[in-house]
User: What shape does this take?
Amino acid sequence: MNALWIIVTVLVGVLGGWPVAAGILRWARSAAKPKARKIPEGVLRGGLVIGMLERAAVVLCILANEPVAIAYVVAIKGLGRYPELKQAPAASEAFIIGTLASMLWAAAIAVLAKMLLL
Assistant: This one.
């Protein structure tokens, strides 16, 4: 693969995933029950940077033909957030939705790039 295409794929996977994940989270909140619990202030902080790193890792894992390594990314993120999520159960749903949306976007971009470049 051409280095320029790898860079473009990583950038689209990383930067494009933020509006996708944010939009899906907004949609999920609007579909939730009106009395849904609010996420406490300060919980899930650093999500933007963590999400960008997560998407970069997913794209690179797929481009490097090491999709199994995505499990390490999920494990690291889950273990890192566990204490926070344990104290604020309302944040768990947002964490899962955001993570899945973010990772699906990154995986789709990487797979599409691989298909176009083969």
Summary: Residues 3-30+44-117 form one domain. The chain has five helices and no strands. The chain has a mean pLDDT of 85.
